[in-house]
């Protein structure tokens, strides 16, 4: 081909890029993070652009590559985008582990099935997930109230046998005759204890606002979709997808207000119940009714705000909601202060006895959560039936299953905290009533759930053995002519068998979620019908039943407390141990890719910083046609391939055509395509394949995360290369005199296939097209077929 072959482009005549022009290879690492030195294979690196949180690096010798184009003829300039500090940068982020239920329910929002014509169902799906997220905020705030108000201030401080061993409760305690200091009156005790859950709500508000300013307020690359773009492209191509500033601000206001009103309700309900006794003061009774009316009105407003609308993705929505929404936390705080003043009024003769009405609170939350999950399952099933995809996890029910698990995690944290604090306060005295009966019932169903999990693990083990036997027969066929080594064959076969277990995850999640829903419903019915803990409710039944109930209650109480301690211990260890912090960082790499669409207190979405970073960098390089030729290969490993695809979707079509995509160890189809079909399903990946210049994917049978893309049909050349050999050599050879390691998910760049595919992509890049011009006057496409999740 002549070096200057003229082509007629969309805006005029331009010259064709040749293999002698400079190209850029942009490397994006995967989960767990790495260093630019490791990515670039050079101990001397310099930062080209970015900051201490996320940046682009080059080798020191390549820092001025644009000024020396003759030195880079026929080879790319390597750059490394390092984003690991977005998720695991400092020790304080390890405490995000305590926000796990919020993160999980946010994942459920993005797991909706693909649907091209059911706009109302899409809105209903997002609405139901947001309501489940709201119940989680109320649940965990109620759990904090249970610990601080009910167990500590109401029960222990009001019981001399319990408070006698707690010197720090002395100024709140009462004696045998019910006498004590100024703070010993129940209303004042509750008001003081209410500061703890209120402070927790304030802390969540502060963290959410701080991360909102750092993540959701990052400006993406401005662009407008071209009219010729296909309507079935992924929603990740929409201009406002990675800019959730308005929605997170709205949800933050609503959830903060919900937490504060929950605290106010816990304090005010106890005082109002006392004032309604026969002969109670009429003025205080009227104040109690007024405050409860204010709480009910506040709850209605909060639900309305959450239901009002969802995400705005078709444009950059830089506005914030009106003052009514932004001032919700201040209004809720005012109601809380008034409630504390109301509860602090002197009420002679008022003594705390029994429990606060926690059973009704936790029972109502559990009932609402169960109904919402069932409703979400019905909507998801209808969406899936409208546009079924064979590879979709759980036939479209992955979102409801994960939402159910988020509720279960919230239950473990709330019930575990209450059980441990009750045991710590009461010790062996048995002088206080303890946590609500429902929490004990919920703890008692954990042993049966663990039996189900054990059976599933046994099934997985048996399946792994069968796959291992099959692979032991296949491994010699993949290495013909090699002398047999039974131990080597066994290790390779075992690695392949374990890697295949990833594809069984939907069945595990679905089964555990279904059993959790059934057992949770049984616990709710048992608590409401008997009003007693399981051991007492089983008294008078056959010995086998009574013994099983006692065992389940004791073991469940220990397990749920152990689960809560495990959460806290992991967070504390990760705060001090960098290696443990790195492990938890991997969890966030996978779980916080998606924007906060269902819960504002979830850990922040790092992609709202990473995707604009990559998009701006690629757009800047492709515009520099005169100096570089504008050719670019973005090379992503593991989670980095997901970021690379998301960034490519955000480019204008004219820029996207100048980009080649190289993915390896990629979960794009194996995990994201199955679990998030509306955004990474076959239609979305096929459109990406058609819109980028070229795309190649490398995978191994030993990789538990990455897999083939599996695109077929009319979307161009095959994306997947045949599965790479792993290990590269079966036995010792001249090229591999020492045993070659089984690489699994890592080491793709060490495989000769990586360099081969990169060279082919660089050689195949199509003609250079004009640099993208300003989008002024550019037509905007109609609303895409997959509508944004809006509720109004």
Automatic annotation (TrEMBL):
Residues 779-792 have a biased composition (Low complexity). InterPro entries: AB_hydrolase_fold. Keywords: Membrane, Transmembrane, Transmembrane helix. Residues 769-792 are annotated as: Disordered. It comes from the Bacteria. The chain crosses the membrane at residues 94-112, 124-144, 190-207, 253-274, 286-307, 328-345, 365-384, 396-418, 438-462, 508-531, 551-571. It comes from Streptomyces alfalfae. This is Integral membrane protein.
């Amino acid at each position: 081909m002549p070096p200057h072959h003229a082509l007629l482009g969309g805006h005029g005549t331009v010259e064709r890029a040749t293999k002698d022009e400079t190209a850029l290879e942009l490397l994006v690492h995967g989960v767990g993070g790495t260093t630019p030195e490791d990515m670039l294979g050079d101990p001397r690196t310099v930062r080209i652009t970015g900051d201490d949180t996320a940046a682009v690096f080059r080798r020191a010798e390549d820092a001025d590559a644009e000024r020396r184009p003759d030195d880079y003829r026929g080879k790319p300039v390597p750059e490394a985008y390092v984003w690991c500090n977005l998720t695991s940068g400092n020790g304080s982020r390890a405490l995000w582990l305590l926000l796990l239920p919020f993160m999980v329910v946010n994942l459920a929002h993005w797991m909706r099935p693909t649907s091209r014509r059911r706009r109302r169902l899409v809105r209903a799906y997002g609405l139901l997930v947001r309501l489940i997220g709201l119940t989680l905020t109320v649940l965990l705030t109620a759990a904090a109230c249970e610990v601080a108000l009910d167990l500590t201030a109401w029960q222990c401080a009001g019981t001399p046998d319990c408070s006698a061993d707690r010197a720090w409760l002395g100024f709140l305690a009462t004696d045998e005759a019910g006498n004590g200091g100024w703070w010993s009156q129940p209303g004042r005790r509750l008001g003081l204890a209410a500061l703890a859950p209120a402070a927790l709500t304030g802390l969540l508000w502060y963290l959410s606002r701080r991360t909102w300013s750092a993540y959701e307020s990052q400006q993406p690359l401005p662009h407008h979709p071209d009219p010729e773009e296909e309507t079935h492209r992924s929603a990740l191509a929409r201009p406002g997808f990675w800019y959730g500033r308005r929605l997170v601000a709205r949800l933050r206001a609503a959830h903060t207000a919900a937490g504060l009103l929950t605290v106010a309700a816990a304090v005010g309900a106890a005082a109002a119940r006392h004032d309604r006794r026969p002969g109670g003061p009429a003025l205080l009774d009227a104040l109690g009714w007024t405050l409860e009316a204010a709480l009910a009105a506040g709850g209605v407003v909060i639900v309305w705000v959450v239901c009002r609308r969802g995400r705005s993705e078709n444009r950059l929505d830089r506005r914030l909601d009106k003052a009514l929404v932004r001032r919700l936390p201040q209004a809720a705080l005012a109601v809380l202060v008034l409630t504390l003043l109301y509860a602090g009024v002197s009420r002679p003769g008022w003594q705390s006895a029994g429990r606060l009405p926690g059973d009704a609170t936790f029972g109502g939350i559990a009932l609402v959560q169960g109904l919402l999950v069932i409703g979400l399952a019905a909507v998801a099933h209808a969406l899936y039936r409208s546009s079924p995809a064979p590879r979709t996890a759980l036939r479209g029910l992955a979102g409801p299953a994960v939402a159910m698990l988020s509720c279960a995690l919230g239950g473990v944290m709330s019930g575990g905290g209450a059980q441990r604090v009750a045991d710590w306060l009461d010790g062996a005295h048995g002088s206080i009533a303890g946590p609500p009966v429902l929490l004990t019932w919920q703890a008692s169903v954990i042993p049966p759930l663990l039996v189900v999990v054990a059976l599933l693990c046994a099934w997985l083990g048996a399946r792994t053995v069968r796959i291992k036997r099959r692979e032991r027969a296949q491994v010699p066929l993949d290495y013909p002519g090699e002398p047999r080594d039974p131990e080597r064959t066994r290790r390779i076969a075992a690695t392949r068998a374990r890697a295949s277990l990833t594809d069984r995850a939907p069945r595990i999640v679905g089964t555990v979620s279904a059993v959790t829903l059934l057992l949770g419903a049984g616990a709710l019915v048992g608590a409401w019908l008997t009003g007693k803990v399981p051991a007492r409710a089983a008294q008078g039944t056959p010995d086998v039943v009574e013994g099983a109930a006692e065992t389940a209650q004791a073991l469940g109480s220990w397990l749920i407390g152990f689960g809560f301690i495990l959460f806290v211990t992991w967070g504390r260890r990760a705060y001090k141990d960098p290696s443990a912090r790195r492990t938890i960082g991997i969890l966030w790499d996978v779980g916080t890719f998606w924007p906060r669409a269902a819960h504002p207190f979830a850990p922040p979405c790092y992609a709202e910083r990473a995707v604009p970073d990559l998009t701006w960098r690629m757009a800047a390089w492709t515009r520099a046609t005169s100096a570089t030729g504008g050719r670019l290969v973005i090379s992503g490993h593991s989670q980095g391939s997901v970021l690379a695809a998301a960034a490519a979707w955000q480019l204008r079509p004219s820029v996207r055509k100048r980009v080649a995509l190289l993915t390896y160890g990629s979960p794009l189809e194996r995990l994201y395509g199955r679990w998030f079909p509306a955004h990474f399903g076959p239609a979305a990946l096929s459109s990406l394949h058609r819109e980028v210049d070229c795309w190649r994917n490398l995978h191994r049978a030993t990789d538990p995360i990455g897999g083939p893309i599996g695109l077929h049909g009319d979307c161009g050349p095959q994306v997947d290369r045949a599965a790479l050999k792993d290990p590269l050599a079966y036995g010792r050879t001249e090229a591999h005199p020492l045993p070659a390691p089984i690489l699994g998910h890592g080491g793709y760049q060490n495989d000769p296939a990586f360099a081969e595919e990169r060279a082919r992509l660089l050689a195949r890049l199509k003609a250079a097209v004009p640099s993208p011009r300003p989008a002024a006057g550019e037509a905007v496409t109609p609303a895409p077929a997959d509508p944004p999740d809006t509720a109004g």
